[in-house]
Write a structure and sequence with these properties.
Blueprint lengths: L1 E9 L8 H5 L9 H9 L2 H7 L17 H12 L8 H8 L2 H28 L6 H8 L2 H30 L9 H17 L8 H21 L15 H15 L15 H29 L3 H4 L5 H46 L15 H17 L2 H30 L10 H20 L1 H31 L12
Helix pairs in contact: 2-14, 4-12, 5-11, 6-11, 6-12, 6-16, 6-17, 7-8, 7-16, 8-9, 8-14, 8-15, 8-16, 8-18, 9-14, 9-15, 10-12, 10-14, 11-16, 11-17, 12-14, 14-15, 16-17, 16-18, 17-18
Length: about 500
């Protein structure tokens, strides 16, 4: 899902025009991971419509040319993915009540809005492209910024590829003679890995069409269903459980990931002090309303026992409302979105790994001097298949939400530290309640996740530890290279 964690950012479907990357020239040895993600994710023709043009001479973008509407559209596009079509059945199985499930989606939207307010405050003070990488490097420590990049690259690509492939397998199962989701998902991942390794080009505007299609579908489906729903009252099948509610928020947070998308292009937004926080709040609010409306339709369309625990809740709701034809139509839209998501992440992720390898942050054999990064494509495909065959779908959601949530919490802790140090110079809406509630919310979710899903949470923590070890090893190797070349290490004084 592409530009966030949150990069996940990567719950939305993104398509890259890599000619922008080819034009960029290296400016020093250390380059923001997220600046690279920005050049990968925003298609060149989309840049043209936004009024952005790449300077072929120095590989830079003209500053401050993205307005409020474009920044808000970026947030909406990056947030709306396929999680909204696949999550509520698992929530219903855990919570046992339609209204509690809707409450989770509401609280998830509020949590995302709190995060948007905090990120907006940071963006006003640090209006640069780079997102968490820049924020954490400037407010906490360069190692924290590297760790944010590590999370986004590993958790933001390989695991979401596996989740999207599994969901595709489940939605397409009736069309594939009952083939298991792992088998059909494996075929999908390997197919796109082979295509992109062969340097097959794709149109850069597919992403925009996919997002527009999903938004239009949600609106049409909700309006159509509103006239046909005849829900029956059903009591909750389970007593309220705070830990179950917290774990459900972890799952929902993955569907809301992307609310921080505009901060990755903060250096190109006009009047960032006003437009950045406004775009984050507007985009989050729009998506929250769409999610609440769509899930209300899903949950009221059929009896609880029919929906609970089902990944393909969109298909079931469509069949209950409009018969088999509507169910198949819903499944087709979701399946196409999942295919687009897998293809976009299989294309973008390896380019990031290859660029980091060329810059010395990953093993050199992952890099490329020309043509597609075949080694990086193979590594990402192997990681995605490992996730696909060793994890359940809800297990993947837990791992993703847990790990990406910790990244955003670290960023807001950096804001709190900055505010305490600089005082009135940093304007934080609702200080100290808003950032405090956001951090407490993430801590509550991760605690509930660790209590109910200890294995997935432990793997998330292991990912963070591996990232820190990678930072230390990379820093030491680069320091030795600099010494051998007679160059002082500029980051030596900041090391911990």
């Amino acid at each position: 899902m592409p530009l966030t964690p949150s990069l996940s950012p990567f719950d939305g479907e993104w398509v890259s025009d890599l000619s922008a990357v080819a034009l960029a020239k290296e400016e020093g040895r250390v380059r923001s991971v997220y600046q690279l993600l920005n050049s990968l994710i925003i298609p060149a023709r989309t840049q043209g419509r936004m009024g952005i043009s790449m300077n072929a001479k120095n590989g830079t973008l003209p500053q401050r040319q993205i307005g409020l509407i474009s920044a808000t559209a970026l947030v909406v596009a990056n947030m709306i993915g396929t999680g909204v079509f696949t999550t509520s059945g698992f929530l219903l199985a855990d919570l046992g009540s339609r209204w509690t499930v809707l409450a989770v989606w509401l609280v998830g939207g509020i949590q995302a809005a709190l995060g948007a307010l905090c990120y907006g405050a940071l963006a006003r003070h640090i209006p640069q492209s780079g997102g968490e990488y820049v924020f954490l490097s400037k407010t906490l420590h360069p190692a924290a910024g590297y760790l944010a990049g590590w999370i986004s690259l590993l958790v933001g690509f390989s695991a979401p590829v596996a989740a999207a492939a599994f969901a595709f397998g489940q939605y397409s199962r009736p069309w594939l003679w009952g083939c298991s989701p792992q088998v059909s998902g494996t075929v999908l991942v390997l197919l796109f890995a082979a295509l992109h390794a062969a340097n097959v080009r794709r149109g850069a505007n597919v992403q925009n069409v996919a997002v527009l299609m999903k938004v239009s579908f949600i609106l049409l489906f909700v309006c159509f269903a509103a006239f046909l729903l005849s829900p029956s009252a059903q009591p909750a099948t389970k007593a309220f459980s705070p830990s179950a509610f917290g774990l459900s928020l972890v799952w929902v947070s993955f569907s809301y990931s992307g609310w921080n998308a505009a901060v990755y292009i903060g250096g190109e937004v006009e009047n960032p002090e006003r437009n950045l926080p406004a775009s984050l709040l507007l985009g989050t609010g729009i998506v929250a309303l769409l999610y609440l409306s769509l899930n209300a339709v899903f949950l009221l369309s059929a009896p609880l026992e029919v929906l609970a625990g089902k990944l393909e809740i969109g298909r079931i709701a469509g069949q209950a409302i409009g018969g088999p034809a509507l169910g198949e139509a819903v499944s087709a839209v979701v399946a196409l979105g999942l295919i687009s998501s897998v293809s976009a992440m299989v294309m973008a992720g390896p380019r990031v790994y290859a660029k980091m390898a060329n810059d010395g942050y990953l093993p050199r054999w992952l890099g490329t001097t020309g043509g597609p990064p075949r080694s990086a494509i193979a590594v990402q495909a192997a990681l995605a298949l490992a996730f696909l065959w060793t994890s359940s779908y809800d297990g993947l959601l837990t791992y993703l939400g847990f790990t990406l949530g910790l990244s955003t919490a670290m960023t807001v802790i950096g804001l709190i530290k900055l505010k305490l140090r600089e005082g009135a110079e940093i304007r934080v809406p609702g200080w100290p309640i808003v950032p405090g509630l956001f951090v407490l919310g993430v801590l509550a979710m991760t605690t509930a996740s660790a209590f109910r899903r200890p294995m997935e949470s432990a793997i998330g923590l292991a990912t963070l530890v591996a990232g820190w070890v990678s930072w230390r090893l990379t820093k030491n190797m680069r320091h030795r290279d600099d010494l051998s070349e007679g160059v002082a290490d500029p980051g030596g004084s900041a090391s911990g």
